[in-house]
Design brief:
Elements: H1 6-13, H2 17-35, H3 41-58, H4 65-112, H5 117-133, H6 136-147, H7 152-159, H8 163-180, H9 189-192
Helix pairs in contact: 1-2, 2-3, 2-4, 3-4, 5-8, 6-8, 7-8
Length: 195
C-alpha cells in the first residue's frame, strides 16, 4: 500500500504536522542515503534536515507524490551542490592563507638574515672553533666528507672503517654544528647536504 495517499498530501498542503512527520520519517533515510553519495555522512544529515526545514517554511502546494519527491530530491541536490562549492572555496582560502603565512615567515626570515662580510667571517670562526672541539676521528671524517667532498664509501675505505661508522660520525658532527650555527643555517645548507 502506498503511504503517500491523496489524503496525506491534502493534510500536508494544509500544513498538518502529523502529515509532515509521516513524510519526514518516510523520506529522511532515503534522502540521507542519496546525499551521502556526494558529501560526508554527517554533512548529508544536516543538508537533508535543511531541505525539510525549507520545505516546511515554503510550504509548496503539491498535487501528487511525484511532485513531493521531485521537490525534496531537488532541494537536497541543491544543498549538496552549495555545500560542495562552499568546501571548494574554503579549501582554496585555507591553501591561500597557508601560503600567505609561509610567505610572511620567509619574508621575516630573509629580512633578519645577515649576509654581510662580517657575518661570513663569524660563521667561519664558529665552524673552526666547533671543528676544533670535535673528537679527532669525528673531525677527520667530517673534514674528508664535507670539505674534501669525498663520498662516504671513499672515506670508509681510506680510514679502514665501515660506511655505517662514517655515517654515524658525520651525523654526530652535523648535530654539533647545527647547534653552534643555528642563527646562520639558511646560509649553510651546502654544509648539511648529504653526499
Amino acid at each position: 500500500m502506498d503511504v503517500l495517499t491523496n489524503e496525506l498530501l491534502e493534510l500536508l498542503n494544509k500544513k498538518q504536522e502529523a502529515a509532515f512527520e509521516v513524510v519526514f520519517s518516510l523520506y529522511y533515510p532515503r534522502l540521507v542515503y542519496f546525499a551521502k553519495e556526494y558529501v560526508p555522512h554527517e554533512d548529508a544529515e544536516g543538508l537533508v534536515q535543511d531541505a525539510f526545514i525549507a520545505f516546511w517554511e515554503k510550504h509548496p502546494s503539491l498535487t501528487n507524490k511525484f511532485q513531493l519527491q521531485s521537490y525534496l530530491y531537488t532541494s537536497v541536490k541543491n544543498n549538496c551542490l552549495m555545500h560542495l562549492r562552499h568546501q571548494k572555496v574554503k579549501k582554496r582560502y585555507d591553501e591561500m592563507a597557508a601560503l600567505e603565512m609561509q610567505n610572511l615567515l620567509h619574508l621575516s626570515a630573509l629580512k633578519q638574515l645577515d649576509t654581510s662580510i662580517v657575518s661570513f667571517q663569524e660563521i667561519e670562526s664558529i665552524i673552526e672553533r666547533t671543528m676544533a672541539d670535535l673528537p679527532p676521528r669525528c673531525r677527520e671524517i667530517f673534514t674528508l666528507s664535507r670539505f674534501e667532498n669525498k663520498k662516504n664509501q671513499e672515506v670508509a675505505k681510506a680510514l679502514n672503517i665501515s660506511v655505517k661508522a662514517v655515517e654515524a660520525q658525520i651525523s654526530k658532527a652535523l648535530k654539533v654544528l647545527k647547534i653552534a650555527l643555528k642563527d646562520f643555517l639558511p646560509l649553510l645548507t651546502y654544509l648539511f647536504l648529504n653526499n
